[in-house]
Structure to design on (216 residues):
C-alpha cells in the first residue's frame, strides 16, 4: 500500500534563524518581506550569505530589533512612552536608524513624521470649586488632578434681625427686617472662603495610530 504523502510546507513559511548581535530570532520569509534588505538577505539569490549553522547574521542592536520585528510581524508601530518620563526620543531615533538600514520605508516615514506623538494625547479641563475644604475622590490611572487652593474675601449680607436663614440672601428679608433696619445701609461682613482651581489632565490613547494600514 502506498504511504500517504506528507503535507507540503511552503518555503516562505519555513522558520529562519536571524542572529542579531548576541540574540537569535526565529522568523519566516513572509515576515521579512516588509524589509527589502532582510528579504534579499534570505533569498535564494543570496543563500551564500548564511552562516555555517544556516542562520543569518544581522549587524544590529537586538533590543532595537525587537521593535522592528514586531512591526514586520504584526504591523504595529513602536510606542516608547512612560507616563512619568514621556516619549523616549532616543529609542525612536535608534529604531528609525535601524529601519533605514534594513530598508523599511513605511516605518522610517512614520517615525520621521513623529506620528507616535498622536498616539498619546492629553485633554485638560479646569474648573473652580468654592468653599471646599475636604475632597475625597477616586479616579482612574489615566487621570491626573492638580489642586490650586487660594483664600479670597467675599462680602456676605447680614440680616438686620440676625436671622440665620436670611444670611447672604436679602430677598428673604421681609417688612419686619426692613423695619428693624430703619434708615441704615445694608450690612455686609467680610468672609474668607476657600477657592480651589481644579485642573484635570486625562491621558488619551489612540491605538489606531499604531497600526499599519496596508491599504495605503
Amino acid at each position: 500500500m502506498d504511504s500517504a504523502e506528507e503535507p507540503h510546507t511552503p518555503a516562505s513559511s519555513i522558520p529562519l534563524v536571524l542572529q542579531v548581535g548576541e540574540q537569535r530570532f526565529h522568523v519566516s520569509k513572509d515576515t521579512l518581506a516588509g524589509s527589502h534588505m532582510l528579504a534579499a538577505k534570505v533569498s535564494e539569490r543570496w543563500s551564500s550569505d548564511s552562516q555555517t549553522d544556516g542562520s543569518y547574521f544581522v549587524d544590529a542592536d537586538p533590543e532595537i530589533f525587537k521593535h522592528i520585528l514586531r512591526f514586520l510581524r504584526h504591523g504595529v508601530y513602536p510606542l516608547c512612552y512612560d507616563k512619568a518620563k514621556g516619549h523616549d526620543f532616543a529609542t525612536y531615533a535608534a529604531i528609525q536608524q535601524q529601519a533605514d538600514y534594513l530598508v523599511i520605508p513605511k516605518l522610517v516615514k512614520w517615525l520621521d513624521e513623529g506620528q507616535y506623538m498622536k498616539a498619546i494625547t492629553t485633554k485638560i479641563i479646569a474648573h473652580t470649586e468654592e468653599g471646599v475644604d475636604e475632597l475625597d475622590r477616586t479616579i482612574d490611572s489615566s487621570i491626573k488632578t492638580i489642586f490650586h487652593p487660594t483664600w479670597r474675601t467675599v462680602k456676605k449680607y447680614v440680616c438686620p434681625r440676625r436671622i440665620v436663614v436670611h444670611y447672604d440672601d436679602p430677598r428673604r428679608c421681609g417688612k419686619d427686617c426692613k423695619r428693624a433696619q430703619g434708615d441704615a445701609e445694608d450690612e455686609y461682613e467680610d468672609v474668607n472662603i476657600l477657592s480651589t482651581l481644579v485642573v484635570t489632565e486625562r491621558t488619551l490613547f489612540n491605538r489606531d495610530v499604531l497600526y499599519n494600514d496596508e491599504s495605503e
Q: What stands out?
A: The longest strand covers residues 187-205. The helical segments are 29-32, 36-41, 62-74, 89-101, 105-112, 175-181.
